[in-house]
Design goal:
The chain has 425 residues and is an alpha/beta fold. The chain has 4 domains: 20-152, 3-Layer(aba) Sandwich (Rossmann fold); 158-227, Helicase, Ruva Protein, domain 3 (Orthogonal Bundle); 239-326, Zinc Finger, Delta Prime, domain 3 (Up-down Bundle); 346-419, post-AAA+ oligomerization domain-like (Orthogonal Bundle), CATH 1.10.3710. It has helices at 5-8, 21-24, 31-36, 52-62, 77-88, 111-122, 136-139, 142-145, 158-171, 186-192, 196-209, 219-227, 239-252, 256-268, 273-288, 294-309, 314-326, 333-348, 363-367, 406-419; strands at 42-45, 67-71, 100-104, 127-132, 149-152, 179-182, 214-217. Helix 5 links the parallel strand 2 (67-71) and strand 3. The longest helix is centred in the middle third of the chain and has 16 residues, at 273-288.
Length: 425
């Protein structure tokens, strides 16, 4: 039994593929492509263990195409050119059956390595399927990204993960010979974090740790076994998301000590410093926002600095930023505001822009009254004109609720002074 459980259970047919119904369900974005065999070049973006590699392999098999696979960790331009040359010999130019080249962790390829793929993708010598755990907008060059469809794969939900466990118990050639009683799954599911591969690895570890003929699995046993088999940080493995989550939550919770600890864990584990810096930018806006607008400036400057400085000195800059953000006043008011606005749009649709604040670049639009009743704020006392700017159907709706930090109290008083009782500030 050399292969791990996750590998033994890897599906080879689309009908056995679990999860990602938004892509491969009856109405899935990829379903028709696969059925017709008209496969575009694409990027699969999602966390580890969501089936990116498996889906690429199934697409190749079901569309009857040659399948080549490279890992960005140990492949270079020469490897890419070798595969492209083989692919060119397999089909005609622009053939609908062009070979599929799957590149795992494509975000780790340098610009020159990604450039080497452009001509082959453009001319149809290969159909590229790249897999990445990082936002392709940041990590894939724009020229290559424009030639690919981007599909997001989601973490497995509870139903999917429990289905995987049942499949392992009933269909795996080794586990099916054992008597396994699954009394509780909460700890297994929680530890997996929606990562199917991680779930199966943990499950196999638990099963193999038990010597009895009848193996009973409950939350207590799972936690006991896992605590005695703690893994080291692996920037491409299971703890990648757990550690960054702990880091972000420590800063959000105003604990600079824990923040520096988790930062050190990532740095010592070889994590990409730009990845850490990007998360700090997001946090500075999401969790601090208008309570301290300078936080976003510092976080953005941190990203620029670590991009130039690199490892190992970048750890100093990251530590300064992390501790500053941890010690800053916190507010998620602007984050909540955009969430409320988006939810309103989902419920009300695309409402008409009020005619008085529409643009009027043409004579006809001016004749139709576009912009006629617009009050130019600077023409009024205190640079404020009491005018409604929301669509008529939702006028008077308040999306932004300032928090209780000193800066936001000032904002609240400013708005209350202008709008009086209108928005109940």
């Amino acid at each position: 039994m050399n292969k791990p459980l996750a590998e033994r259970l890897r599906p080879s047919k689309l009908e056995d593929y679990i999860s990602q119904s938004h892509l491969i369900g009856d109405e899935g974005a990829l379903t028709q492509h696969i059925k017709k065999g008209l496969i575009p070049s694409m990027i699969f973006w999602g966390p580890p263990g969501t089936g990116k590699t498996t889906l690429a392999s199934i697409i190749a098999k079901e569309s009857g195409r040659p399948f080549y696979s490279l890992s960005a960790i140990n492949s270079g331009v020469k490897d890419i050119r070798d595969v492209i040359n083989k692919a060119k010999q397999n089909g005609e130019l622009f053939s609908s059956k062009s070979p599929i080249l799957f590149i795992d962790e494509i975000h780790r390829f340098s610009k020159s390595q990604q450039d080497s793929l452009l001509q082959a993708v453009e001319k149809g010598w290969i159909t590229l399927i790249g897999a990445t755990t990082e936002n392709p907008s940041f990590e894939v060059i724009s020229a290559l990204l424009s030639r690919c469809q981007v599909y997001t794969l989601n973490s497995f939900d509870k139903k999917d993960l429990e289905m995987l466990l049942k499949r392992a118990i009933n269909k795996d050639e080794y586990l099916s010979k054992k008597i396994i009683i699954l009394n509780e799954t909460s700890a297994l599911l929680r530890l997996s974090g929606g990562d199917a591969r991680k779930l199966l690895n943990i499950f196999e570890l638990i099963v193999n740790s038990q010597e009895e003929n009848e193996i009973i699995i409950n939350d207590k046993i799972v936690l006991q076994v896992i605590q005695s088999n703690t893994t080291h940080y692996d920037k491409s493995g299971d703890q990648h998301y757990d550690i960054i989550s702990a880091f972000i939550k420590s800063i959000r919770g105003s604990d600079p000590n824990a923040a520096v600890y988790w930062l050190a864990r990532m740095i010592e584990g070889g994590e990409d410093v730009k990845f850490i810096a990007r998360r700090l930018i997001i946090l500075a806006s999401e969790d601090i926002g208008n309570a301290n607008p300078t936080a976003l400036v510092i976080a953005n400057n941190t990203f620029q600095a670590v991009s130039v400085i690199g490892h190992p000195e970048s750890k100093i800059i990251l530590s300064q930023c992390a501790t500053y953000l941890a010690c800053s006043s916190k507010s998620n008011s602007s984050y909540k505001a955009i969430g409320k606005a988006i939810e309103t749009i989902k419920q009300t649709g695309n409402l008409t822009v009020p005619i008085e604040i529409r643009n009027a670049p043409s004579k006809l639009m001016k004749e139709l009254g576009y912009g006629d009743s617009y009050k130019y704020a600077h023409a009024y006392e205190n640079n404020f004109a009491n005018q409604e700017f929301l669509p008529n159907e939702i006028e008077g709706t308040k999306f932004y609720e300032p928090g209780n930090s000193s800066r936001e109290i000032s904002q609240r008083n400013f708005l209350k002074n202008l709008w009086k009782e209108k928005y109940d500030y």
